[in-house]
Amino acid sequence: MNHSEIMIDRVLVHLFNDLLRIEEKTLQKKIGDLSMREVHIIEAVCASQKEDNTMTVLAATLRVTVGSLTVAIKTLERKGYVIRQRSQSDKRRVHVLPLPPALEVEKHHRAFHARMVEAVTSTVPPQELDVLIKSLHAIYDYFYDQEEA
Question: Is the pLDDT assigned to residue 50 strictly greater than 70?
Fold first, then answer.
């Protein structure tokens, strides 16, 4: 590998090894009793529309099994972040609804992401943002392809 490739490798390895840990550590000041996995479940619940907030749809969105999601949702329900509600029209369907503490967590989580994006975009000249976006898509596509293989 040439020098540029070595530098890209180092940045990516450190970034992927540390990103969730750093995000969790930063957010712990605001959301003390939640793991990043739980925060990302709350994010999906808050982002879903009423008709799309079923356990099945949320599990597919998060790429986990319904069984795994059920365990996590029960924990979040016990902690007071979400409630589960049977559908009135189809009792087999269970909707997950955020409670006010979940909305507060999501607000802090969105703010963290906004600060992260600002930190990156503020260092890149506007005319180079397309190259950055293309590069980030290439990284995403690479990892997505690895997951599918």
Answer: no
